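WARN no homologs supplied; continuing
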Amino acid sequence: MSIEHINSLIESQLMSWHEAKRNFDRLMEIERKPLQLGDFHIAAQLNPARIRSTGAAVDKASVAARVCFLCKENRPAMQMSGEWPTPEWELLVNPYPILPVHFTIAAKKHIPQERIPLEMAMMAEYAPPLVFFFNGAKAGASAPDHLHCQAMLRSELPITALAERYHPVERAGWMSSEEYGLHLPFNFMSAVIKGDMAGLEHLALTESAFGIDSETGEKDNELVNAFFWISDSGYLRIVVVPRRAHRPSLYFLPEGERFVISPGAVDIAGLLIVPRKEDFDRLTPETAARIYSETAFSGSLPKEIINHFLPGSHS
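OK structure emitted
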């Protein structure tokens, strides 16, 4: 899938769906400001239309009380489904975009968001201009009841360039970002996947990746974000970010102190989405670092996580 095909698909959808076109047009009005967090250069983006996702109620009772907006029978009649090489999935233009190229890829069956789907590797091979990313059910998914991932241009997310620069292609398999020798606001695992048996084994570890709940101390497969893309060298790249929590403490403070920021994969990748102007204006690098530290692992990754990807590296 070329960039021309991608643009054509979006243009065709917007010609027939006026609400989506209005939301895409509003991207011209967004504001951004750079924030430097040590060696991680991120940006905050003011995007009021994303309040639907940032403020979504994702507790089990709230999810059970609403219809699933990713099931075909509940989607708007105008929403088209693009051609896709994986028959169990549907390619959809996201009607509430963060960036001008923003897709949702939804499973045709209504099954929960419990695992990182390895089909994302095939998706990345089919559409090299894109990075495919996954929000765990407790790590940014606004539809935790329906398996899905999303996609954007890979050049838009800082974490992809960071991993490509500091995880050399010669080092196949998994590597902790702690080995990058950088000052980062959180740590993660990155991989170079080659087309041999070892590569398949490295890929398989992604599906069972987990975070660790900061309140219970328990492993949780729903507390992860993941990114799949094909690098310029032609190899599949993966980043898995284990999470500690869905939302930071700042999200729950009284108005006046509260920040309505709820990190999903895009935020973790270095584009912090802020729906409210007042939060955007007062967001500082220190506050952004606090948000990351409360929702991901700002210190060393727990040994259980390292051992999952690199068995035997910690006793």
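The mean pLDDT is 90.
OK
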